[in-house]
Structures are given as structure tokens and as C-alpha cells.
């Protein structure tokens, strides 16, 4: 460690007036002297704090995984995005149609539901068409029956 009288006069004994060999800047005396035991203690405590933080993060991840929902259809665990999408919300416009299914199974369920609705609509249209044809046939039969030569005597 080294210093000069000019630096001591300028900064005082508590100021950055000391060079520690192997370093490229001036430091106050206590920092330049250093404390090997303190440095070792600080390094150990930093390492212990990092280990404790890592352990807490692992416990938190394990706890979170234990709460992760699974698909009722295929049993696959939800992804983070799917889990976030199916969380409870009061806004009905943001609610999912099948919150108990994974993305793939939901897509299949929505597709099947759409096909079923299309089939039901087609059946309804067919039924209405049959009803219309039946009514037309009845009207034609009534008109034919009412238009005969004996019809003038019925009234």
C-alpha cells in the first residue's frame, strides 16, 4: 500500500488517498487495508443468501405445480397461458367456454359443438321444409276438393 503527503493533505487520512498494489484506483485507508475475514464472511453470507433464495424459489415452483389444474378429458397439465386464461373473472366476455379442458381438448369440444349446432340447424330447416310441403299438399287437396262439380251443392 502506498500514498503521498500531497494526497494526505488533499483528502485527509479518511479520504481516498491510498493505493493498494494490484488495484488501479485510490481508496480510503480501511478499504485499502481490507479485512480478509470480513471478506470471507461476506462471501459466505452472500452464498448462503443465494442458496436460501434458490431453495425458496424451488419450493414456490413445487407448490405452484401442485395447484396446476389438469384437463378433465386427457389428463394433461395446463400450460401457464391456459391456466391464466381459465382463471376466474367476473367479466363474462372473457370467460372460457370449457375451463376444465386443455387447449387441444377445448378446440375439439368447440369444433364438435359447432358441428352439432350445424346439424341441428340443418335438421330444423329440413323439418320446416317438410312442414311447408305438407301444408302445400293439404291446401292443394282442399282446393281440389272444394273445386269439384258437387261443391256447389254443399253450401
Structure description:
With 155 residues, the chain is mostly helical. It has 2 domains: 1-48, no CATH class; 70-148. Helices cover 63% and strands 3% of the residues. Strands 1-2 form a two-stranded antiparallel sheet. The radius of gyration is 43 Å and the shape is rod-shaped. It starts with a helix and ends with a helix. 4% of the residues are buried.
What sort of overall outline do the alpha carbons produce when their principal axes are compared? rod-shaped
Strand order in space, largest sheet = 1-2
Residue stretches low in confidence (pLDDT < 50, at least 5 long) are none
The amount of beta strand, in percent, is: under 5%
Overall number of domains: 2
Integer-rounded radius of gyration: 43 Å
Largest sheet: 2 strands, antiparallel
What's the SSE pattern?
A: HEEHHHHH
Helical coverage, percent range: 55-70%
Could you tell me how far the N terminus lies from the C terminus, measured between alpha carbons in angstroms? 135 Å
What's the tally of helices? 6
How confident is the prediction overall: mean pLDDT?
A: 83
Number of strands: 2
Sheet/helix structural class: mainly alpha
Amino acid at each position: 500500500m502506498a500514498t503521498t503527503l500531497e494526497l494526505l493533505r488533499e483528502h485527509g487520512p479518511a479520504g481516498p488517498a491510498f493505493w493498494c498494489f494490484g488495484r488501479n484506483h485510490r481508496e480510503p485507508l480501511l478499504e485499502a487495508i481490507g479485512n480478509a475475514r470480513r471478506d470471507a464472511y461476506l462471501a459466505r453470507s452472500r452464498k448462503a443468501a443465494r442458496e436460501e433464495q434458490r431453495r425458496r424459489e424451488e419450493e414456490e415452483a413445487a407448490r405452484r405445480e401442485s395447484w396446476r389444474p389438469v384437463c378433465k378429458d386427457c389428463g394433461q397439465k395446463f400450460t401457464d397461458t391456459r391456466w391464466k386464461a381459465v382463471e376466474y373473472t367476473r367479466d363474462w366476455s372473457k370467460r372460457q367456454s370449457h375451463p376444465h379442458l386443455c387447449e387441444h381438448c377445448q378446440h375439439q369440444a368447440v369444433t364438435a359443438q359447432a358441428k352439432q349446432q350445424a346439424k341441428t340447424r340443418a335438421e330444423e330447416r329440413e323439418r320446416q321444409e317438410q312442414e311447408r310441403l305438407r301444408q302445400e299438399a293439404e291446401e292443394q287437396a282442399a282446393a281440389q276438393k272444394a273445386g269439384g262439380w258437387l261443391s256447389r251443392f254443399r253450401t
